[in-house]
Design a protein that fits this description.
Radius of gyration: 13 Å
Strand content: 25-35%
Shape: globular
Length: 112
């Protein structure tokens, strides 16, 4: 799994690419948290290029959401691949993280 960061006026977008599973899940916090330390912007995880996600990956996303919530930071998901949004709902991640169909929709939501 790789993380690519892009900063916008109102958000820090982190594009997750590859697989988020038992071998790569422990790296998620190590890869993402350093991008968030110098900014208080909303974090948008762009999942468009995340093509594999298992229970360990869901757990790491939940842990990331909790850590950001503890720091009073907001996190959104955008661009879920087909079928993944249903799995995020089943894992109850949608209870603490809003899910948007595209990155543009997530960015627009921050402007209103």
């Amino acid at each position: 799994m790789h993380v690519f960061a892009k900063e916008f006026d109102e958000a820090l977008v982190l594009k997750l690419c590859g697989r988020l599973h038992s071998r790569t899940a422990p790296m998620l916090l190590d890869e993402v948290l350093p991008h968030t330390e110098d900014s208080d912007k909303t974090i948008i995880l762009d999942l468009e290029n995340l093509y594999s996600l298992n229970s360990a990956g869901f757990h790491s996303l939940h842990m990331l959401a909790c850590k950001l919530d503890d720091a009073n930071r907001r996190m959104l998901f955008s661009s879920c691949p087909p079928g993944m949004e249903d799995r995020l709902h089943c894992a109850r991640l949608c209870d603490c993280v809003a899910i948007y169909p595209s990155l543009e929709d997530a960015l627009t939501s921050l402007q209103s």
